[in-house]
Amino acid sequence: MAGFVFNIGAQELQDGTTTWTGSPADIRARLVLTASGAPDKDADVMTGIGSVDPTAEVVVSDCVGPTKSDVRDRIEYTNTAAKVVFTTVAAIGEVSRMVFYRFVTDDSDSIPLVCVEITPKTPNTGDIEVTMPANGWFYTQQ
Length: 142
Description:
The chain has one domain (4-141). Helices cover 6% and strands 39% of the residues. The chain contains one helix and ten strands.
């Protein structure tokens, strides 16, 4: 399955309930175990999505977007570092997806925004660096 924007994520970004621009401390990324499969696009909260190990989660900084691209006919979301780095990730098993979400208090009220396919990696207490695709982390249509 390719990456996707969660339905609630699209609504939150469109309504402005979730702000991507700048360095909002509430935008986070979490690794998803390959064995778990893709999360449900209809999920409204983060409960049960991604690894529960704290080393598999990071705050995402320097977010850029929404940026309108008439050439590609879409609204793009990126970050200036063009990567997300998870440091000293525990040996949790192979990961092949990353979920961006808006952290509120805990998983039961945090909002999933987008699921991104990544090159499968097996963490073993080292860093995992995920490089942003050339056209951004994700996009919504104009």
